[in-house]
Amino acid sequence: MRKIGVFVCHCGTNISSMVDIDRVIESATRLPDVACAVDYQFTCSAPGQTQIKDAIKEYNLDGVVVAACSPRMHEPTFRKTLRDAGLNPYMMEMANLREHTSWVALNRGEATAKAIDLVRMKVAKVARLRPLEEIHLPVTRRALVIGGGVAGIQAALDIADGGVDVTLVERSPSLGGHMAQYDKTFPTLDCASCILTPKMVEVASHPNITLLTYSEVEEVTGFVGAYKVKARIRARSVDLEKCNGCGTCLEVCPVRVPSEFDASLADRTAIYRPFPQAVPAAPAIDRESCIYFKTGKCRACEKVCPADAIDFEQENEIVEVQVGAIVVATGFHFFDARKYTEYGYGSYKDVISWLQFERLTNASGPTGGKLRRPSDGMEPKSIVFIHCVGSRDPSKGFPYCSRICCMATAKHAVITRSKIPDAKIYSFYIDIRAAGKGYEEFVRRAIEQEDVQFIKGRPSRIVQSDGKLLVRSEDAFLGRQIEVEADMVILTNGAAAQNDAAELAQMLGIGYDQYGFFNELHPKLRPVETNKAGIYLAGMCQGPKDIPESVAQASASASKVLGLLSRDQIAREPIIAEVDPGRCTGCMDCMEVCFFTAVEEDEFMERKIAKVLPGVCQGCGACVAQCSDGAMELRAFSDEQIHAEITALFAVEVAR
Amino acid sequence: MTEEYYPRIVGLLCNWCTYAGADLAGTTRIKYPQNIRPIRIPCSGRVSPHFILTSLLSGADGVFIGGCHPADCHYNEGNYYARRRFSVLKSFLDFVGVEPERLTLEWVSASEGDRFAEVVTAFTEDVKALGRPNPYSRKELED
Amino acid sequence: MPRAEIVKKVPINDSYFLFRSCVSSSKYPGIETSTEEVFARLGIELEDSPEQSCCGGFITFTSLAEVTASLPAVARNLSIIEESGKNALTVCNGCHMFLTEFGHFMDHNPDITNKVNEMLGMIGREYKGTSHVLHMLEAVAGLKNRIKELITRPLKGLRVATHYGCHYLYGFKHDAVDDPYMPTVLEELIEIAGAENVTYPEARTCCGSGLTQVIIHKEEMSLPFLKRKLDSLKKIEADVLIVVCPYCMTILDRGQFKMEERGIEEYGVPVLYINQLLGLAMGIDPVRLGLEAHITPVKRLLEKLEVSNA
Amino acid sequence: MSRLFDKKLRPELYSDLSELTFRFIGDLEKCMQCGKCVGNCPAASVTQYNSRRIIHSIKLGNVEDVIKSEELWSCFFCSSCYASCPKDINFPFTVAMLRYASLYAGYGWEYVKKLLPYALDYYRTGMTVLQDERNPNITRRRANNSNTSGSMADVREKMGLSRERKVSDRALSEVQFISDVSGMTRILKELPHKEEKAPLTRAELDRMVTVTGPNGKFAGFPEEDDNA
Ligand SMILES: Cc1cc2nc3c(=O)[nH]c(=O)nc-3n(C[C@H](O)[C@H](O)[C@H](O)COP(=O)(O)OP(=O)(O)OC[C@H]3O[C@@H](n4cnc5c(N)ncnc54)[C@H](O)[C@@H]3O)c2cc1C
Ligand SMILES: Cc1cc2nc3c(=O)[nH]c(=O)nc-3n(C[C@H](O)[C@H](O)[C@H](O)COP(=O)(O)OP(=O)(O)OC[C@H]3O[C@@H](n4cnc5c(N)ncnc54)[C@H](O)[C@@H]3O)c2cc1C
Ligand code: SF4
Ligand code: SF4
Ligand code: SF4
Ligand code: SF4
Ligand code: SF4
Ligand code: SF4
Ligand code: SF4
Ligand code: SF4
Fold first, then answer.
1. Pocket, ligand 9, Cβ cutoff 6 A
2. Has residue A642 been placed in a domain?
3. Would you say residue D203 has pLDDT above 50?
């Protein structure tokens, strides 16, 4: 038999004015498990808590019911009281006599009857509570950042500056991501590489950062505080230690393939550095196109390398790292504009993508920053931008808005004006979405000062005629069909998730939406956390956003990581699910419903059973309700405990 | 003692939304009938069909389940499970002869104190209107 | 060249039901004879039936009878095709659109099919939905490798332009064999015939008639449009324009005559159905191919072929 | 045998336009007014016709204005708008529905009248387009090109075909039967007498959809049919 103490609070008169405290005490005293039942003016006050502590000692209590306000208010207070008194803090329940009773009741009789019932129910539950110990998870003080775009760079630097070691894994041969491809950035038009390059260099030289470029994450196991990560460093064929970045090798390589960095507007060699300011500066050999790897002949680069850095024998290397937290910053990809055959991208040479436009206007791009159209190198005098290509189009593309392209197009229009002062510039839009600090002003400037014609209407077709592109559209304000003769057309093909986003999400066990963008835990209140504790998001991989937002998210993620890793151990509420191995039949129904992938397969006496990962379980109880064998229990909310509450309610006849 | 029918209702309220909504009804002193006996659970997805059956068998006249609005679940999807299980159970109850009106599933957010009072009042009225103890309660079955 | 993937599986059979078209039979019989000749050489049988009538589409889109009246008219033709146990080939974009779209509609609305069958039952027929209706071009494209072997007189040096027609390009958004804006099937066939494909800017532009416009509004609306297209065509000096629909042929062939008659512009670009072009490349007699029924003369085209083949 | 289809499937049975239009307005709600349908629309390029604006107007509830308008009769039914619409709105289909609505409300008859000869040909022969030419110059030109009289019958004969394609008697009687029982014949009958822009009464509407004659058999083709 339990020895339970019941402590009924008056809350001044908040409770006592509506509830007959004496009757509550009287009825509680008569309950079998109750050793003492007392009342007090303000139970949460210091003397009130002392009353509890004293009673625990005096009656040798092993359970407590505090009949007072809402547990959402004072549960932590009274748990602490119990702990101070040497009793397990989870041996306590609160009956809500205030918010759920005295404050809402119409009359004293009803309120008192309800209070009596609630106390009885809680006594029944406490009689079945079991002591619980907080879960302590060890913490590895190292973080992993996946993706080295502006978001990944920022996250890595913030974490490293906080004194925590970081491993940054970037897939391509250099840091930088998409931002490295731009010339200028909206809304301030500052030079992208002037602000990005120093950060890239800082990453490479930071004592707390281990940079793995040309690398990918292969496997992630474990849980918050203790993730095990396997990363594969692809054979670069250039020794990073020896290479001094002189670039001599690039000059001799006979291979020419389209450059990814230049969005196929120019060629690169087989041994290549995506761009001159690449970090690390050492090139990599693309083995798919290298003649030596295809035919066994060439090795021209090796011959000229002054540092003897070329290493054809290099092999992929697998490294293992233990980390406590992970930031995912893998960025984005593009909608394939070739699907818009009506615009002729891919068959009309002068219809290009906005990324290609960035390269065409970039001082380090294939034209040295001169705006020339691809077909004949002519300076375009009439330029059309088309918004929302693949965005806001459920039929051929994505229903969502890509969010950055209205602004990027305004930026492009302004850049165009500065390069070709007498050009005619048109921008076809559905709506202009420029909701950021200084954004609307920027668009207005393009319209008012830079003489960019924004035309409301989504073009239907582009027809190529005599070296001109005829853009056929509606001008919705005129309500009429119009045709614009253009020398060059730029399509803002929408932002899409990385092709392999779903695979990465599955590897990490984090949620993703139907388009492949990773899901935050709560869109408003937990925007950088994921459903997996210890894994955070930054940048475009979570959804379309611009650089300021990507960087803000990166810093937010970094501070989350630092907060988490500032402790040696992570304490977690012990209210999690638990499997009874004897009863579990291994049906794994629980696994199906667990949103947090906290249930795993395990083995028990050569049988398959379920196992709950304590670091991952959030304690929602969905699995418990799903289990038809009664093998899954939720601590502090077990079937037995809740059933006891229910049956206790009806254990006594009350007046009807 | 007058023999007015005073139904008792078991309330299974999720911690993050409906329980907090009920708290808010209290803080803003909205009055509503006190037939409901709230039981705090982490999430409406925790509600096993057994809880409802136990309640009805033990003599509850109604069962009120409260969860977060769809897409607002603290645990992301718990309320969807609740909804699925709920509709299955409801048709089962119909089958065994318990009026489906004795069972309700409501979405009440933490900021909807008034709504909590409203839906509880309405449900209490509904149950009252059924007018007799639930036919499934053990007592009734034994009689 | 970018192009939507071919999503539709075209069934290639040993024999088909030939669905005739009013416009073809009455104005350009060569469309049907050329199809028969080409398929005969392919060893594919084409079954005919005098029970088939106008597809029923015209009365629908003229709004003269609402869908409830035109559905049974279309379904009657479909039931005749089904009776043959074969898939059907249509030579006309319009017939194709109506037969497939309405068939599709009925297949997805069983309650309506029941009502339709109630009516068909009164004339002893039933619609079951067991046959496919193909556009002739879909089948020909599927047979292009076999056609290649039958080319005996390659059309060397012939400059050939194309017009697919709106209902071929735009009518079947989710069930098309080709991309609506960058179709390539005809271009491939033209190359197979040994000719040179030439493009003009307005190649994918409407001929100006749509389904009824030429009747409802006459010149004022459709002629300017036709002119835009023909002007663009004239510039590239094509020897011949290829169509896959008798109605397009009517507009483009007679439209030129009309312009000439009014003294607006002379074009003189003969318009041929794709099978007529393939027929020429297979050495079939131009008279049998019905080229004499065309209003814009084909004589110069034939002479050019004589010369290049000599 | 008077009503083969229930009300739900026969929009024309509604005289209340709001009820009728509700059936297809549902799809138009999706329209985001992007204007992509307009840029390649042949009607829009030669007139003030504008599909986006029509949709907007309907969404605002101005159905009546739309079905009264001349604009409605400008669509070519080319389906280009459907092909380009990011929301997959089949606008030509909607236009067809609106035209029915227009006719039943008593508008647009002057446009449809022009199509009557073709429909009558269809009723009489089972084919909509026949061999005879309305323009003698065409025949003359064809005579030139083919060394025949220029008549289609002669050209067909020269090609080795029958002089004229005919549908079978059975086919013809079936076509006519369907026309009769489905109400099309009645429309053909009424069309020549249609007073322009005279809105129908409810009673007229009801009469139009009721087939005359015993057992659903049509009693006979209208005598007044000479002007075909
Ligand atoms: C044409 C254009 C112009 C723009 N102009 C502006 C502008 O002017 N101003 C502005 O604020 N915003 C602009 N933006 C938006 C800006 O590009 C993004 O906000 C920003 O690049 C997002 O950064 P990120 O780090 O999230 O992604 P990214 O830049 O895409 O970086 C992701 C990185 O992760 C790496 N990676 C991907 N997958 C893996 C993997 N599995 N493992 C390891 N590494 C991986 C990639 O190689 C890449 O380096 C523009 C966008 C476009 C398309
Ligand atoms: C009508 C409306 C509806 C909205 N709806 C949504 C929505 O549905 N979803 C959404 O995501 N966003 C919504 N927003 C935006 C949302 O309100 C803001 O993003 C959010 O409130 C910003 O929070 P904050 O903490 O920055 O500012 P605030 O909410 O303004 O809080 C600032 C606090 O600082 C205090 N304070 C001010 N000065 C001082 C001082 N000198 N010293 C001490 N304290 C000070 C103030 O008293 C206040 O408590 C809405 C905004 C509006 C106006
Ligand atoms: S414990 Fe709660 S009810 Fe009691 S005095 Fe404190 S606040 Fe009031
Ligand atoms: S060995 Fe390969 S990378 Fe080196 S120069 Fe030759 S082709 Fe280029
Ligand atoms: S590999 Fe050799 S040649 Fe190439 S950049 Fe490095 S040091 Fe220079
Ligand atoms: S940001 Fe502008 S251009 Fe980009 S998808 Fe949204 S509305 Fe279209
Ligand atoms: S649902 Fe229950 S029985 Fe099935 S695996 Fe999970 S715990 Fe075991
Ligand atoms: S309680 Fe919730 S989070 Fe924990 S294992 Fe069960 S379903 Fe997963
Ligand atoms: S293209 Fe479609 S969505 Fe856009 S305006 Fe036209 S109908 Fe509306
Ligand atoms: S179907 Fe009608 S509305 Fe659509 S593009 Fe053609 S003419 Fe315009």
1. D 31-37, 51-52, 55, 85-87, 89, 91
2. no
3. no
Co-location of A435 and A537 in the same domain: no
User: CA A249 to CA A281: how far, in whole Å?
Assistant: 12
Distance A423 CA to ligand 2 centre (A): 44
Q: Specify the CATH number for the domain of residue A300.
A: 3.30.70
Residue with tokens 């290649």: C148
Q: Calculate the alpha carbon distances from A21 to A6, A40, A93, B39 in Å.
A: 12, 10, 18, 21
Work out the pLDDT band at C213, boundaries 50, 70, 90.
low
Asked if residue A299 lies in contact with residue A292, where contact means CB atoms within 8 angstroms, the answer is: yes
Report yes or no on A651 lying in a domain. no
Tens of pLDDT, residues A579-624: 999 999 999 999 999 988 899 999 999 999 999 998 889 899 999 9
pTM of the model: 0.81
User: Using the 8-state DSSP alphabet, how is residue B78 labeled?
Assistant: H
Q: What is the pLDDT of residues B31-75, one digit of tens each?
A: 999 999 999 999 999 999 999 999 998 889 999 999 999 877 888
Q: Residue A489 is part of which domain span?
A: 332-496
Residues A124 and A89 in one domain: yes
CA of C58 to the centre of ligand 8 (A): 62
Q: What is the pLDDT of residues D62-81, one digit of tens each?
A: 877 888 888 888 888 888 99
pLDDT digit string (tens) for C239-266? Answer: 999 999 999 999 999 999 988 888 888 9
Domain boundaries, chain B: 25-142
Query: Does residue A627 line the site of ligand 8, with CB under 6 A?
Result: no
Q: Which of A104, A620, A647 sits opposite B45 (nearest CB)?
A: A620
Domains of chain C and any CATH numbers = 3-136 (1.20.1050.140), 144-305 (3.40.50.11810)
Long-range contacts of the stretch A514-519 (C-beta < 8 A, 24+): A515/A398, A515/A400, A517/A541, A517/A542, A517/A543, A518/A328, A518/A542
- The two three-digit tokens of residue D58, written as one number: 């309907």
C-alpha D133/C-alpha A369 separation (Å) is 64
Which chain A residues contact residue B48 at CB under 8 A?
624-625, 639
Q: Which two tokens stand for residue A537?
A: 């998001």
Cα atoms in the 13 Å half-sphere on the side-chain side of C285:
6
What's the rounded Cα separation, in Å, for the pair A287 and A281?
A: 18
Whether D36 sits inside 8 A of A395 (CB atoms) is no
Domain at A187, CATH number: 3.50.50.60
- Residues in C closer than 8 angstroms to D118, CB to CB, are 58, 62, 215
Higher pLDDT pick, D214 / A138 = A138
ipTM given for this complex: 0.80
Whether B contacts D, i.e. 3 or more CB pairs less than 8 A apart, is no
Q: Give the atom of ligand 1 at the shortest distance from the alpha carbon of A176.
A: 49
DSSP D3-38: -SS-GGG-GGG---HHHHHHHHHHHHTT-----TTT
Most ligand 8 atoms within 8 A of CB, residue of A594, A597, A601 to mutate: A594
Q: How far is the CA of A173 from the centre of ligand 5 (A)?
A: 14
Q: Is A649 within a domain?
A: no
Bridging pattern class, strands C159-162 and C196-197: parallel
Which domains does chain D carry?
Answer: 3-107+198-207 (1.10.1060.10), 109-127+168-195 (no CATH), 129-166 (no CATH)
